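Pasting as-is:
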Amino acid sequence: MICKFIKVKYIYYYDLLWFTIYMPIRHATLHQLKIFAAVARHMSFARAAEELHLTPPALSIQVRQLAEAVGQPLFDQIGKKIYLTAAGEALTSACHDVLDRLEYFTQEIAALQGLEKGSLKVATLSTTKYFIPRMLGGFCTEHPGVASALFIGNRETLLERLARNQDDLYILGQPPEHMHVVAESFADNPVVVVVRPDHPLMPEKDIEPSRLRDAPFILREPGSGTRLAAEKFFEQHGVVLRTRMEFGSNEAVKQSVAGGLGIAVLSASTIRAELANGELAILDVRGFPLERKWYAVYPAGKRLSPIVKAFMEYLFAASAHGENGPI
């Protein structure tokens, strides 16, 4: 009898403890989680309210009620800036899990019903704007029920979005080594040395990399995958690039080269039009083109929705057949 009493008492105490710890968060609503996720993503109440078409006071009330349900403050405000607390960081991760799982469930149900509904968010480098939008457009034509969104930015911005798991898929030329991700190559991404057609070295073949030691280079911004590949190659050949200019866009780099301001190292997929109309030419430098790949990247452990899987299959198939792809 004593043992039985102790067991019953222990169970009662455990249930009471579970109720005390876990019941409050169960009062949180999905609407509140979506609002919190938006604030955490923007780190701004005003920008989150604008995105969700809410007034800032209404949004603040929902976040405060959610904090009360959690039992911990979710944000610290220092000056005009807000920062996630430890509880806020934990809740951000939980929100991603919950919202991603609900989206996955929605698409699973749609697939069982023979429907194609859901969303697809792709983030890609500005270098791929010459082919990824066409490929995404082709996919959406085949799947008209899919609501798609495309973000185009530089490598640094994409890595920040990847770290926050803001999108379904990321297109990169060089997967990050410092992040736990899955990277699947789907197309070649050759990198070439680009000059004006009347450059003095154009008639020559198999040019030694050392002969470019004093050449003025027009480079992408620091951190760019193309720039990193170029700097690594020339460093291996004992050449320190003499940077004349650096830009955050391929268009600015190409225009500067066409204007005779220097030479550049660019992805071949970005210069097809300029090669065709004679504005630019490829210099025959030994070791080039650099053989690189385009990668579809997503966080390791991320559950891919049926729509994302379908887009990846489309991406791989279209690239393999040269349809709208970079080759």
